[in-house]
Amino acid sequence: GSTRQRTHRTVQRILGETSLTPAAHLTCVEASRDEVDAVIDSYRAAGVRHIVALRGDPPGGAGIGGAYAPHADGYANATELTAAVARRGGFEISVGCYPEGHPESPSIAHDIEVLKAKVDAGATRAISQFFFDIDAFLRFRDRVRAAGVTIPIIPGVMPVTNFTGLKRMSAGCGATVPGWLAAHFDGLDDDPETRKLIAASVAAETCARLQEEGFADFHFYTLNRADLVYAICRVLGVREVKARTV
Prior knowledge:
Elements: H1 4-17, E1 24-27, H2 33-46, E2 50-54, H3 78-88, E3 92-97, H4 108-121, E4 125-130, H5 134-146, E5 153-157, H6 163-173, H7 179-185, H8 192-212, E6 219-220, H9 226-235
Parallel strand pairs: 1-2, 2-3, 3-4, 4-5, 5-6
Helix pairs in contact: 3-4, 8-9
């Protein structure tokens, strides 16, 4: 909520100053329907054609996993927000999904029903919460497909350079931290360079296995470490498009 206008300005700069195609993140935290609709319309006017529709984390310092209360005149959840974006037309709409369960959800089955509702509301792609248990993600994929959901599911991959921070985030969002990952970072609190190498290795191995399972697209949670994600992309065979000279 507090960064909505900054996000809009950044997206406008990307459109105006680069050749990249941005996907604008949009939440309904602490905003009325009219305010959110105005942002959607302004994105369309700016040339944005892809919105990532998320409910957003609870405001007021509650953080991930805290109690959420919708705005009195706002959209109550991501499904309603997705429908609002779809009503305006002309947008590709990505939504979130949670392979190990949303922290507020009673079950994976309930999460899949919510995802189905988002699809019915207009979602065209789902981006997963970050995970390290690949088998759990693949089981979720299989259950989603068995439930009749056919939109692309993009794996969320987060290279880990700060294990203490990871434990805090994982506790809030429900992502499992395997023992083998903890062992990799044991004793490296004062060794950021080795942590960075491990982060790149684990993320690249995760992507390589998912490629074997048929996934070709990935969503990286960069945490402002673009250099690290750039290196991982190189490992995966992604290269820059060089400008042609005449």
